[in-house]
Amino acid sequence: MNSLKQKIKETDLTVLLICMGLSFFSVISIYSIYAKMTILNNIRVVIVQAGASAVGVVAAFLISLIDYKEMCEMWKLHSAFAYALMVLTAVIGFAPEGTTNKAWIALPFGLSIQPSEILKLSMILTLAFFFEKNKNTVNEIKTFTRLVFAALVPLAFVAYQKDDGTLLIFCVIVACIFFARGVSYKVVAAGVVGLAAMSPILWFKVLDDYQKNRILALFHPDEFSNIMWQQNQGRIAIGSGMITGKGFLVDNHNATPLAYNDSIFSFFAESTGFVGTVLLLAAILFLWMKILSIARRSNDLRGSLICVGVFAMLMAQTAINIGMNLSLLPVIGVTLPLFSAGGTSVIVTYAAIGLVLSVARHNPKTLFN
After folding, report:
1. Of 134, 208, 283, 359, which has the maximum CB count within 10 A?
2. Cα(252)–Cα(236) distance, rounded to whole angstroms?
């Protein structure tokens, strides 16, 4: 018991408490949607969210006890496991209601798992390991080519699933890790120019018509009113929250589609108003700052890059999800971390927080920090 108390004392509880607070309001929001709105008729979603949050907190604590250096060293093991699950989606994968991508695998008791979420963590650990191993030669052509290949393999697997939202998150993670490591600005400039040159190809040869229409709808909402309907409903919900919100367990919420998932930010803003929304964003921003602070405090490159990767994952998902709710970005099915309904997403996010806590635990503060 004394040992457990000591382990808890060594844990960065501020990070964990912020995450638990986000999960608490997530469960409250989803329960309110179930109890007062007709768009969610199954209490099971609420139970799964609460259960996944509880499991996630325990998982984050247990993962924090493992030295992150050892987890990086085991990159072959967790990479093989993640890729095996990704391959399985091509055989037994299914698309849940509201999606078209067969990126999930069914589990017993009506549960499911999204392997790409596991691959995110594996990729972060793997890239951190490779960059640490090659930290003195990162800008040499041979080394840089190997690092790019290590990043492109998981991107290719996700691209095969045609999950645009997840692919975008992976790209942001990779870009942030490469940038944080100090890749030559010439390489960064070349990458930007290459993306600009490829944009016409992406538009005319890669994107499907429905994907183009989602982008065009942002600039011509009147011409694509059917596409913008969900986002318009979300903006109406946000505006109707006014200063202090309507409250959670009330009957006059707007019927925003997927309010428990993609549009949960709109529901929360309607429930708590401007004040609650600002507090939510402040908590999220503080969490990001804590993660970057731990990255800076790390004594080695591996720990820093793990934190940067987790920060990039949370930042990208949050920015895209809120952008979708505000009609600033097209709907691409990206969840709000720890808030949107989804057991796999919640547990994997807590596992990512566990990696950050591991870096904090194994890089304790000293008098000279």
Report:
1. 359
2. 13
The answer on pLDDT for 98 being more than 70 is no
Tally Cβ neighbours within 10 Å of residue 292: 18
Compute the residue count for the chain: 369
Q: Which residue has the tokens 């992406």?
A: 202
Are 253 and 36 in contact by the 8 Å Cβ rule? The answer is: yes
| Chain Cα centroid distance, residue 13 | 21
In whole angstroms, what is the distance from residue 145 CA to residue 131 CA? 12
Long-range contacts of 53-56 (CB under 8 A, 24+ apart): 53/20, 53/23, 53/26, 53/27, 53/338, 53/346, 53/350, 55/347, 55/350, 56/19, 56/23, 56/346, 56/347, 56/349, 56/350, 56/351
pLDDT over threshold 50, residue 135: yes
Region 321-334: mean pLDDT is 89
For 36, residues 6+ apart whose C-beta sits below 8 A from its C-beta are 249, 250, 251, 253
Measure the CA–CA gap between 218 and 197, rounded to whole angstroms: 23
pLDDT band at 367 (very low <50, low <70, confident <90, very high): very low
Please say if the pLDDT value at position 152 is more than 70. Answer: yes
Residue 136, pLDDT > 70, answer yes
3-state secondary structure of 134: coil
Query: What is the reported pLDDT for 365?
Result: 62
Question: Coil, helix or strand for 112?
Answer: strand
Q: Can you say how many angstroms the Cα of residue 115 is from the centroid of all Cα atoms in its chain?
A: 13
Strands 112-113 and 105-106: antiparallel
CA distance 288 to 175: 17
Within 10 angstroms of residue 255's Cβ, the number of other Cβ atoms is 11
**Of 78, 14, 105, 22, nearest to 335 (Cα)?**
22
| C-alpha–C-alpha distance, residues 63 and 57, integer Å | 10
Q: What pLDDT is attached to residue 312? A: 96
Task: Provide the terminal-to-terminal Cα distance of the chain, rounded to the nearest Å.
Answer: 30
Residue type, 179: F
Across 269-274, average pLDDT: 94
